[in-house]
Amino acid sequence: MKNNVNRELPEDLMKQLDYKPFETTEIGHPEVQRVAPKVTVTTGDDKVVESLEDVVKKTVKDGMTISFHHHFRNGDFVFNQVMDIILKLGIKDLTLAPSSLTGVMNDKVIEAIKAGTITNITSSGMRGSLGDFVSHGGLKNPVIFRSHGNRARSIENGNIKIDVAFLGVPNSDALGNANGMNGDAVFGSLGYALMDAQYADKVVLLTDNIVDYPNTPASIKQTQVDYVVKVDKVGDPDKIGSGATRFTKDPKELKIASMVNDVIVNSPYFKDGFSFQTGSGGAALAVTRFLRQSMIDAGITASFALGGITSPTVKLLEEGLVKKVMDVQDFDKGAAASMKNNQNQQEIDASWYADPDNKGAMVDQLDVAILSALEIDTNFNVNVMTGSDGVIRGAIGGHQDAATSKLTIISAPLVRGRIATVVPDVTTVVTPGESVDVLVTEYGIAINPRRKDLQDALSNVPGLPVYDIHDLQKLAESKVGKPEPLQFTDRTVALVEYRDGTIIDTIKQVKD
For residue range 281-330, what is the model confidence (pLDDT) as tens digits? Predict the structure, then answer.
């Protein structure tokens, strides 16, 4: 069985899991039926419990699906506390369904897999030791990778049914009203956790900061929460994010950023009221600063900035260059602190951000998205999931979701070290080429042949060399050579969904 990006799919597994192959980025206008959680009616005036173990005993049983959020990133203390208790109790056959997995979770997940406690995982991504473990066949069943928008869609339609959500928050009152803006472990927007709070059968908040009732503003509400657990420390704010992320001094990244800015400024979309989403890497942050000066020079403002938010984006808001920031996650302390003080920095949940099955996601209104890539091939397909060795070392995140913008730009170096970024075929297709418009490297740009309008607009811009993507691929190969083909077994260790729930690719076990 092949899908529309020419990827072989395991027919038996597709039938077993009731999957359809990816066909198109056009979602259409289906009518969908959403699910609702079970609710245990609460009428008391205090949900605070001192023992996390007692809560786990009451809520978690063999075969359940449990979830966590990743807003703390590597400052997360919640996951390991909960999993230690689950392991101690000998609970088995759980499905782990976090919004994503961070490095501090890896060792505990591997321990839980080896113990038979975790037998299924669905996530946006994984890296490090866990990615290596899964890539070499360590997990019994295939991981299901979903974008942030697709995770929201899957929760809302019941494909992911969360039995218990364990959500760390920097503050809560005794009834479960909580936000991410106050306390010792502030991380700003609770955008991904809001889906779990709304749809999980049981919602457990963990916090080190019980505040007076009623706690406002309430991102998570008492109507959604079953238990509030007081812990010594919910997270390390120094590992949630640094201050304002430093402007890159890397000449290659600066050159790429400058060319990305040239593409935007000379496109049909650079006009008063345009909207954009950037990432958090060095080149993407540099684009934000180049774009700032171009907006000042042209005398225009943006209607909104979207996605994971950084301090440079918040600065544009403060200067009046961006009217609204639509915030699903904050990547540094400056952005997190800003949401508390600026009413134009709006917290949004993952459904509002990017769910393809709702009545209008923010990504549907995006003019420009600047995204990264581990690999991009001559059909403009993008890989952000597996490395050149075939090992899982990335995350879909919002990549597929933001790529629905009117102008999707991939910024990436031509080669990284001795590894080509522009290749004949990517190892894993995550974002299909039909939704990618321009590739920008330090050597020049390539425009998707589908976009004749962009070819006309960008072909004669001074200092912006335009190449056929095949020529960039050959240039990359001439610099680093042609690698030996990767060796995989026939066993599928992961399925990669497109944002509509169809299968865009599979990841096979790496051959030892």
Answer: 778 789 999 999 999 999 999 999 998 899 899 999 999 999 999 999 99
| Domain shared by 305 and 160, yes or no | no
Domain assignment present for 177: yes
Output the CA–CA distances (angstroms, integers) from residue 81 to 99, 151, 166, 185, 230, in the order listed. 18, 24, 10, 16, 12
SS3 of 12-25: HHHHHCCCCECCCC
Place of tokens 């004949």: 424
Burial group, residue 418, by CB count within 10 angstroms (0-12, 13-18, 19+):
exposed
CB 193 within 8 A of CB 347: no
b/e per residue 261-275 (b: at least 16 CB within 10 A): bbbbbbbebbeeebb
- What is the per-residue pLDDT across 400-434, written as a single tens digit (0 to 9) for each? 999 999 999 999 999 999 999 999 999 999 999 99
Domain span at residue 160 reads: 46-125+154-240
Judge if 286 and 171 occupy the same domain: no
End-to-end CA, the chain: 26
How far apart CA 73 and CA 335 sit, in angstroms, is: 15
How many C-alpha atoms does 473 have within 13 Å on its Cβ side?
Answer: 16
Tokens describing residue 335: 């952005």
Regarding whether 297 and 230 lie in a shared domain, the answer is: no
- Verify that 298 and 210 share a domain, yes or no: no
Beta bridge partners of 2: 8
